[in-house]
Amino acid sequence: MPRFLALDIETTGLTYNDHLLTVAAAWRDDEGVVQAEAMNVSMRDLFSQPCTTPELFYWLRELAQGPDWLVFHNAAFDLPHLLRIGVLTEDICRGRIFDTMVMARHTGDRESVSLGKLCRHYGIGNEGWQGMKKRRKGLAKLDAETVIEYNKDDARNTLLLVEHIHGEAEKIYSQAYLQAEGDFILLAAQMQVTGMAIDLTTINRTVDDYKAELAEIQKRLMSVKILKATDNVGLRKYLLSQECLLIAKTAGGKDKLDVGVLQEIQAYHQGEVADVIEDVLRGRHLVKALGTWLVGIRDQADEEGRVHPLFKPGGTVSGRLSCKHPNVQAIPRGMKLFIPGRGVKALVSLDYAQAELRLAAIYAGEVVMAKIFQEPDADPHLETARAMYGDEKAKENRFLGKSANFATIYGAGPGSLSHTAKLSQEKAKEVLTLHRQRFPRFRQVSKAAEARWAKRGFLVLSSGRRRFVSPSDRAFKLYKAFNQLVQGSVACVMQTAMLGIHVEMPQVRIVSQVHDSILIEVMEGDIDEACHRAVTIMEDAVPERIHKLVNPRIAMKVDVTVYLPTEEAQE
Fold first, then answer.
1. Could you tell me which of 323, 343, 307 has the C-alpha nearest to residue 523?
2. How many CA atoms are closer than 13 Å to the CA of 22, on its beta-carbon side?
3. CATH code of the domain made up of 4-194
4. Would residue 543 be called left, alpha or beta, if left means φ above 0 and alpha means ψ between -120 and 50 degrees?
């Protein structure tokens, strides 16, 4: 059996700026007996004093020398704290990180991959420990001895868990695959430590402008007895007073007042009602922008003007990275908040163009779509409309071509397309039927993926990773099989590209990954050369065995945007 060292930390909170309380480790000794130790890093009480930094370094470095794997449950949270203070380094961790949370998702049909539920599944831990999991956010208020013992239990139970999960993983994946997964987890942790430089000047100016605009909107809404843009009670009363029909209901039976519903009402009413709805929608946007994307991000910046989002591998069932504290993946594309930091030559956005549609066409062996992608500057949605409606009507129907492409990838039927594209049921059915006639392979492969997912229990993504069907998938979401194959494979391609850039380009550092984009900082050397090399790595990230599924070959295209530093940023 491989030798494991399970590591766990406890902190004052859940963000990068919170403080480290304790660090625990667990391993099996030469006789196979589980051992666990913990170091008090910053907790002070009468019976336990914090260790010195050299003591922590020596203790953990000594422990980390022998084992084959350094094991975490949710390394995306624990590992950045240890990298940040230098107790662990990339050289120590490379090829040795094993995350039980991530690999639990890659080895079985789990509804949950939390430590508590996985341990309960394997009969690990006791009720007292399970109960402590609920007190996670209040650990700093407990005495040091209690926190240390809880920390040791977490490490001990993670060690017992990895002996199950690693055994399952070895039956499916190669050693090289497991090491690459660990290296990507390490890279995500390093991205959080590096952080992203934010444009404080623009943010502060925008905050002032948005607050002034929001104040004017709220004055107008008050005149019709709506207290603010988020006052749904006042909005409902106003709409009913204007004889606006409210049909859509929430699961709890309340009137729906989301964007789609309000836009529908707005389309049928002119004058004051339309203006009020416009104010409500704009006001909601401003509230969200201020609280989440502007003030929220600004308040999490460190003294160097950088934020440190937590990027979580395995954070989504498809394998794409999730992000929080702050969630930079949710920032609207038009909102430019990030800049080259101090000492950085350029901030570069590398964006896969139509990644999902290209991979979907490759998997489907869709020759007509492959020919569309042969033209370097082709607009695939316009060409889809051309294939569906002919040359003369292509331009006016581009939206329908685009809607049909995404409906095909996401497994949407006429009802769903009708809602998202604001079409009648009859029109939505007509659009999908025409798309399937012009691109029949999409439908055929989608149905084949659905059948394979149901029968075999998993799909194999482009990297060899398995996407297991969970009980809820099997019950309600089998129609999403093709989408999960495509989304999961895009995540695999993105992961391969990011690891390639990180390993092969020491002159740059990756600071973010948002949807199909990789954001890098060029630290030295020629900017154009760095962009060219990064693009080449990204274009080559799809395995050749996947490319061979369609002829002509569909290449991955990467759009590049370069942001140069301002004089102010360099001061």
1. 343
2. 27
3. 3.30.420.10
4. beta
Say yes or no to pLDDT of 134 above 70. Answer: no
CA–CA distance, 128 with 109 (Å, rounded to integer): 27
What is the C-alpha to C-alpha distance for residues 73 and 88, in angstroms, rounded to an integer? Answer: 16
Q: pLDDT band for position 570 (50/70/90)?
A: very low
Return d(Cα 337, Cα 138) in angstroms, integer: 33
* Phi–psi pair at 196, nearest 5 degrees: -130, 135
**Paired strand residues for 338:** 198
CA R_g for the chain: 26
Structure tokens at 237: 């009363």
User: CATH for 312-355+488-570?
Assistant: 3.30.70.370
How far is residue 10's CA from residue 524's CA, in Å, rounded to a whole number? Answer: 37
Q: What is the pLDDT confidence band of residue 37, given thresholds at 50, 70 and 90?
A: very high
How would you class 57 by CB atoms within 10 Å of its CB: exposed for 0-12, middle for 13-18, buried for 19 or more? middle
Q: Which residue has the tokens 């104040």?
A: 215
Label residues 326-354 b or e (16+ Cβ within 10 Å = b).
Answer: bbbbebeeeeebbbbbeebbbbbbbbbeb
- What is the predicted pLDDT for the residue at 356? 96
Tokens of 524: 């030295």
How many Cβ atoms are within 10 Å of 232's Cβ, its own excluded? 15
Comparing CA positions, the residue from 206, 238, 205 lying closest to residue 220 is 238
CB 496 within 8 A of CB 315: no
- CA-to-CA dists, residue 453 to 184, 319, 434, 449, 476, angstroms: 26, 16, 27, 6, 13
Where are the chain's structural domains? 4-194, 200-298, 312-355+488-570, 357-459
Residue type, 129: W
How far are the Cα atoms of 65, 242, 248, 388, 495 from residue 254, in angstroms, in the given order? 59, 19, 8, 41, 43
Helix axes 175-194, 481-504, angle to 10 degrees: 70
pTM over 0.85: yes
* The amino acid at 367: V
What is the CATH code for 200-298?
A: 1.20.1060.10
- Give SS3 for 519: strand
Q: What is the pLDDT of residues 324-380, one digit of tens each?
A: 999 998 888 778 899 999 999 999 999 999 999 999 999 999 999 999 999 888 899
Q: Write the DSSP symbol of residue 290.
A: I
Lookup: tokens for 371: 């020919």
Q: Which helix (H) or strand (E) holds 323?
A: strand 322-324
DSSP string, 239-265: HHHTT-----B-TTSPBP-SHHHHHHH
Beta bridge partners of 500: none
